[in-house]
Amino acid sequence: MFEKLFEPIRIRGMEVNNRIVLPAMGTKMAAEDGNVTQQIIDYQVARVKGGCGLNLSEVCAVHAPSAPRKFLALHNDSYIPSHKAFCDAIHEAGGKCGVQLWQGSLAASMDPKARILVASDLHVHGNTIPAVDVETIEEVVACFGAAAKRAVKAGYDCVEFHCGHNYLPHSFLSPAFNHREDAYGGTFEKRCKFPLGCIRAIRESIPQDMPLLMRLDAQDDYLENGLTIEDVIAYCRLAKEAGVDVLDISRGNMITAGLKYEVPPIDIPKGFNVDNCARIRKETGMLCIAVGRINTPQQAEEILEQDKADMVVMGRAQLADANFCVKAKEGRLQDIVYCIGCDQGCYDGFTDPNVPFITCMRNPYLGKEAQDVLVPAQKPKRVLIAGGGIAGLEAACILKQRGHQPVVYEAGGELGGQFVTAGKAPRKTEMKEAALSYGEKAKRLGIPIHLNTPVDASLLTEGNWDEVILAIGAEPIHLSIPGAERENVYNSHDILNGKATASGHVAVIGGGLVGVETAEYLSEQGAAVTVIEMLDGVAKDLGALRKICVMESLYTHHIETIVSTSVKAVVENGVLVEKEGVEQVIPCDSVVMAVGARARNHEALTDACEKKQLPYHIIGDAKKARRALQAIAEAHAVARSL
């Protein structure tokens, strides 16, 4: 099964046992000073043991003055020991590893103490970041070479040069950013001088039999006068002459909506960049790695079979399931936990300063690999789980795997809860599939499941239970305003679940995630939709990359948004709203409320537990309506604790 995917490949003196690459993804697991930590080693080794062919370290700074804290570094010899520990651990586990050498340009601004290097003067928030001078350019080139020498000493099997995503080499290459008039700007050849200089410095600093990879963008997105794919192909031919062996074909940049392609969310089609990879591969004759929403073994195998790439990046696929590769190789496809492109734990977690390191909605123990051993229950318990949503099912599965005896009671007729509803919104089929997979796993584990069976006090008190988990979820909030009881007023959940329909002109009250997705859904059904939001913007509860996609969709569907506006009443032919003290009626035929959800009332259940002195735990939306990331993590933690 998947013969191409698990076929070895030799690149110069490095032989990799399959075609799967764990890319250089930022984790925030690096030490404050830039050293490799045991946490990074544990995280990477888990993927090697899970069957990955080639593991790349996350971005690694080469130039000390512009190296941000909490990012890996190799700009002096003091870093070699921690990198050697990393390489030794990867090799001991049977893998191959590479280091991604990097000068981050604007990305260094995550650390206010790091110097920001840009190709040309850049005006940001009323300030000007001056173009890097020639002396520093030459210094950075030398730093790439010196870092490569250290990588060799540390024991890496290959080196990757990052030349994409608006980082400094890409900024010199792209005419959208490079407006210099010296030897490093102007013509195509001059714009290539700096990145090619970096490549030569690296190639001269590593052994002849060590492969050199280069990550770059297939094209510039949303950038006026940016790189075309033809420009990229021409540059790749020069890079090949300079010593690059493998092209790692990515997309995206930091300063436009093209950012969505760097960590593409569920809204972006699977394999969106593969055809670009195939063209570059064909026209350069170079080995190429396909990148971008490749998250199933079937998809990866097809890409390789069709000669569109020589290897495939499967990054978030392995965040969601560290054993993705070995499960695919053994044909255990139903056991794979698939990434759905939610971006909640990886990208949103990376950019949120309050989150210590990246996480994953589908894998609560990402970054905690050293602790990721399910401890068998010392004393198996009968556990009643009220609610068959994702939190309840996650808890049930963990409990069963530990040896407990969970029983799930679901009030409705299907498993998955609000996750199923969310999966009915546009472009979110994978979320629905994930919701259903939780139920399928529970059934495979042999967990008793009772549908259409709401839990009440008698079920709690009459059963011989040792513990109770309340995961009864949340319910939509219905505004208490005049006219809210009218027949043409619906809630968003009923719309998405097909229990109600709204047509003609529809006013959606609430511009958060559920509101805007319901608006998209209705628009696709042919309705003319207006979204009314009391805050000063819509989609404020979405992560940055999903928000880009959703806002583009609102524009494409001609959905009107009215912000900083409160709804006072539903009237005969519309909704009465107030903005800046002025009232007006917005005409509509139907009204859909999408103003959030609140935890269902569980007082009767908790009272029953307390009267019987039955230990109970409230998890997921039953505790507080929130993101699935937090609900699943909480369920996982509670199930491990019993």
Automatic annotation (TrEMBL):
Its cofactor is [4Fe-4S] cluster; FMN. It comes from the Bacteria. Residues 382-604 form the FAD/NAD(P)-binding domain. The keyword Iron-sulfur applies. Keywords: Flavoprotein, FMN, Iron, Iron-sulfur, Metal-binding, Oxidoreductase. CDD domains: OYE_like_FMN_family. InterPro entries: Aldolase_TIM, FAD/NAD-bd_sf, FAD/NAD-binding_dom, NADH:flavin_oxidoreductase, OxRdtase_FMN_N. It holds the Pfam family Pyr_redox_2. GO terms for molecular function: FMN binding; iron-sulfur cluster binding; metal ion binding; oxidoreductase activity. Residues 4-333 form the NADH:flavin oxidoreductase/NADH oxidase N-terminal domain. In the N-terminal section; belongs to the NADH:flavin oxidoreductase/NADH oxidase family. This is NADH oxidase. The lineage of its organism: Bacteria, Bacillati, Bacillota, Clostridia, Eubacteriales.
